[in-house]
């Protein structure tokens, strides 16, 4: 990899490797499907995991996969071309998420949330066919923090993401190895090496999740005052003290 000696990439790779060790994300003989959306996060995850795999003391396989949701204009060929430049093969799964959404989306239901569920189901099905026992996703530190705040502010519960979680189907383990990697580092890496970011071509693209965007702005505002904010919140997620909370299922009052 031509960027393997870049200090920025080494920092990303080191943080990813630390998360793998801390949460036992990758084990001997794993066959891991990596969801490649064409965005900066999934590209960065793939390159970090591939660099780590080459020097790992254990044997495991990485299988990059892309779900084509059927939106006109989606350029899976651009993703495939980038991976071929790095001697990696891409599995593309063609779906009709677009048509299903148009037919079955109920009024008032989130377009993006429905699409995400359909894509995730397609990922699980593809992982089954490829005999993968794990699915790696490109969520980073900021995603964990924003999800925590969204759940507190809008749902009324203390929950974020888990770096390692058994899927609802009971067959696959979802891993998020970039839990320690800040989005700013991923953005810098993507821009520095001009990673070919591909738009999903969704008709709702650009509208985004306004609540998540507000959480992102809030974190950036607070981080300007406290540079250690992200690390502090991440540390808090791993240091839960039930006796100082109100959950009656965790504590007898």
From TrEMBL:
It holds the Pfam family ATP_bind_3. The keyword ATP-binding applies. The keyword ATP-binding applies. Transmembrane segments: none annotated. ATP binds at residues 35-37, 41, 67, 138, 143. Residues 32-197 form the tRNA(Ile)-lysidine/2-thiocytidine synthase N-terminal domain. It comes from the Bacteria. Keywords: ATP-binding, Nucleotide-binding, Transferase. GO terms for biological process: tRNA processing. InterPro entries: Rossmann-like_a/b/a_fold, TilS/TtcA_N, tRNA_thiolation_TtcA_Ctu1. One of its GO terms (molecular function) is ATP binding. CDD domains: TtcA-like (cd24138). This is tRNA 2-thiocytidine biosynthesis protein TtcA.
């Amino acid at each position: 990899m031509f960027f393997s000696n870049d200090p920025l990439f080494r920092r990303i790779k080191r943080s990813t490797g630390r998360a793998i060790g801390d949460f036992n994300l990758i084990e001997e003989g794993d066959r891991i499907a990596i969801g490649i959306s064409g965005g900066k996060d999934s590209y960065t995850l793939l390159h970090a995991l591939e660099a780590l795999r080459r020097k790992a003391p254990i044997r495991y396989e990485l299988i990059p996969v892309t779900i084509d949701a059927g939106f006109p204009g989606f350029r899976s060929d651009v993703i495939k071309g980038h991976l071929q430049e790095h001697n990696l093969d891409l599995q593309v799964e063609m779906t009709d998420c677009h048509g299903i959404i148009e037919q079955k989306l109920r009024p008032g239901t989130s377009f993006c949330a429905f699409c995400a569920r359909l894509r995730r189901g397609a990922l699980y099905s593809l992982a089954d066919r490829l005999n993968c026992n794990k699915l790696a996703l490109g969520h980073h530190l900021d995603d964990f923090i924003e999800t925590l705040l969204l759940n507190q502010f809008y749902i009324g519960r203390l929950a974020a993401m888990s770096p390692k979680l058994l899927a609802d189907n009971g067959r696959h383990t979802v891993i998020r190895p970039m839990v320690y990697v800040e989005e700013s580092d991923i953005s810098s890496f993507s821009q520095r090496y001009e990673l070919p970011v591909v738009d999903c071509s969704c008709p709702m693209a650009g509208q985004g999740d306004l609540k998540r965007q507000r959480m992102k702005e809030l974190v950036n505002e607070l981080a300007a005052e406290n540079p250690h904010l992200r690390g502090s919140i991440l540390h808090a997620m791993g240091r839960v003290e039930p006796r100082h909370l109100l959950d009656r299922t965790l504590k007898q009052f």
